[in-house]
Write a structure and sequence with these properties.
The chain is α+β, with helices and mostly antiparallel strands. It is built from 11 helices and 7 strands. It folds into 2 domains: 23-108, Winged helix-like DNA-binding domain superfamily/Winged helix DNA-binding domain (Arc Repressor Mutant, subunit A); 123-253, Trafficking protein particle complex subunit 3 (Muramoyl-pentapeptide Carboxypeptidase, domain 2), CATH 3.30.1380.20. The strands form 2 sheets. The protein has a 4-stranded antiparallel sheet with strand order 4-5-7-6, with helices on one face. A hairpin with a 2-residue loop joins strand 4 and strand 5. Helix 4 (59-66) crosses helix 5 (70-82), helix 8 (138-158) runs parallel beside helix 11 and helix 9 (169-182) crosses helix 11 (213-231). The longest helix has 21 residues, at 138-158. The relative contact order is 0.13.
Length: 254
């Protein structure tokens, strides 16, 4: 049902300008989606708080504290890791070394758990950088932007620990979608027919993506390819829909 402005209840209060003034609706949606994806489960919220209070936890410690199966505990930790709220500490603890086996430890990142809005993105700077790249020529600019995105995607995957590469393509796509959402893309993984896709509903680059889609979208594509390469293996996703081209979403098929 659509409600026109002149049909509203005159006693109904409008949203507070002090809360929503100046916030882009797409950015607001991205933040809400990121927080909901990571913390919609009450147990996951408690796990995150425990990790912050202890400075890090293992799947075994989470399973013991919350009476969970180890696989369930690991799922919650990887969900928080995919969202950028935890990361894997590559240095094994002294207790793990003494036991003779490395223990994968999840530690909090510097990212504020989405309880406040992330810093405003500088659209002017994004546009200037994209324009500078385009001076190289469209083909070279797109190649370089894709390479930068790919390297960044690989670095994101590497933060999730060496075991992260041993996963199915379905679970890898879910982790990629969580990471993209934490970066402002409001992404999710879904199945379309016989293919798996990543659907991004928002773009954190704003006007820069509209003005320089070949450069900015190449960065996005590179990030997805890089994360998939680190989490699953080399793949060649097909990017069939794009918001700068007028589509409702950006869609990558795997």
């Amino acid at each position: 049902m659509t409600v026109r402005a002149d049909d509203r209840d005159p006693h109904q209060h409008a949203p507070s300008a002090t809360v929503l003034d100046g916030i882009d609706p797409d950015e607001f949606n991205s933040v809400v989606t990121a927080v909901t994806s990571a913390f919609g489960d009450p147990t996951r919220r408690e796990i995150y708080l425990l990790a912050r209070s202890l400075g890090g936890v293992t799947a075994g410690e989470v399973a013991e504290n919350f009476e969970l199966h180890a696989n369930v505990a690991r799922h919650h930790l990887e969900k928080l890791t995919g969202g950028g709220y935890l990361e894997v500490d590559s240095a094994p603890s002294s207790r793990a070394r003494a036991a003779g086996r490395p223990s994968k430890r999840y530690v909090p990142t510097d990212l504020d758990a989405g309880l406040a809005f992330p810093p405003r993105r500088d659209d002017i700077l994004s546009s200037l950088l994209a324009r500078a790249l385009e001076l190289l020529g469209p083909a070279e600019a797109e190649r370089m932007a894709d390479e930068v995105g790919y390297d960044y995607g690989r670095s994101l995957a590497a933060r999730m620990g060496p075991e992260a590469s041993h996963r199915s393509v379905r679970s890898a796509l879910a982790v990629v979608a969580d990471a993209l959402t934490a970066h402002g893309f409001a992404a999710h993984a879904e199945k379309r027919g016989s293919e798996l896709t990543i659907v991004s509903e928002c773009c954190p680059f704003g006007a820069a993506a509209q003005d320089y889609p070949h450069v900015v979208c190449a960065v996005d594509r590179g990030i997805i390819r890089g994360m998939l390469a680190g989490l699953y293996g080399d793949t060649q996703p097909r990017f069939e829909e794009s918001r700068p081209d007028g589509d409702e979403h950006c869609v990558a098929r795997v």
